[in-house]
């Protein structure tokens, strides 16, 4: 299968590889970055294992999260990562997630990544629906989703136990027809 490769004006979204490790660990070891995420901070060994395991995965398998690198085209350096999972029961639906390094936030990189992913999923793969589930306290992520036109569909109250307490989540989604109407 052809590896996923998405280009945007400033970024390349591509497969993670072991050369990304030194930049990946800088933000994946930061508790502020993983605060609202289901996974915890990683040490170098865990990060290396994660990249190695992920390297065997490809876009297109139902029900499997695959993590991709977000590379700054100008510097060639990893500035974050994003994940896509096609729904286990219907591969016309995908769930996504984006993480940008704390050193690179508030520069519009997440929005550019999200628009790149949506262009790929809706225009090329012809998906019907893209979903993201966010912690109800994750203001940055909520703003990001709203800024590209995702609609809030659900508010789950204390539905997930992670990092020692119950958390609440919002479900946001966009349909292909909403993506097309947006333009
Ligand atoms: C959420 C996240 C990806 C946003 O990345 P970013 O590159 O800083 O976002 P952008 O610069 O592209 O900003 C996108 C929009 O969100 C807004 N935004 C970003 N961070 C914000 C913050 N902390 N508070 C309020 N608004 C914020 C921006 O103003 C922008 O809105 P606009 O286009 O209407 O001006 C980043 O904060 C992050 O990686 N957080 C940790 C990981 C995480 O929780 N990911 C989500 C779960 S998968």
UniProtKB/TrEMBL annotation:
Alphabetized GO MF terms: acyltransferase activity, transferring groups other than amino-acyl groups
Pfam families named among the record's database cross-references: Acetyltransf_3
Start and end residues of each N-acetyltransferase domain: 11-177
Alphabetical list of InterPro entries matching this protein: Acyl_CoA_acyltransferase, GNAT_dom, N-acetyltransferase
UniProt protein name: GCN5-related N-acetyltransferase
């Amino acid at each position: 299968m052809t590896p996923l490769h998405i280009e945007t004006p400033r970024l390349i979204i591509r497969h993670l590889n072991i050369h990304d490790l030194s930049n990946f660990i800088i933000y994946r070891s930061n508790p502020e970055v993983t605060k609202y995420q289901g996974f915890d901070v990683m040490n170098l060994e865990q990060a290396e294992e994660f990249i190695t395991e992920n390297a065997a995965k490809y876009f297109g398998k139902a029900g499997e999260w695959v993590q991709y690198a977000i590379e700054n085209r100008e510097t060639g350096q990893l500035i974050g990562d994003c994940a896509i999972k096609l729904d286990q029961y219907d591969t016309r639906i995908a769930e996504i997630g984006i993480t940008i390094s704390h050193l690179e936030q508030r520069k519009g990189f997440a929005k550019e990544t999200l628009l790149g992913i949506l262009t790929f999923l809706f225009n090329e793969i012809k998906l019907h629906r893209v979903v993201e589930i966010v912690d109800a306290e994750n203001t940055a992520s909520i703003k990001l989703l709203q800024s590209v036109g995702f609609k809030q569909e659900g508010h789950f109250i204390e539905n997930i136990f992670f990092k020692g307490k119950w958390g609440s989540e919002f479900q946001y989604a966009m349909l292909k027809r909403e993506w097309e109407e947006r333009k």
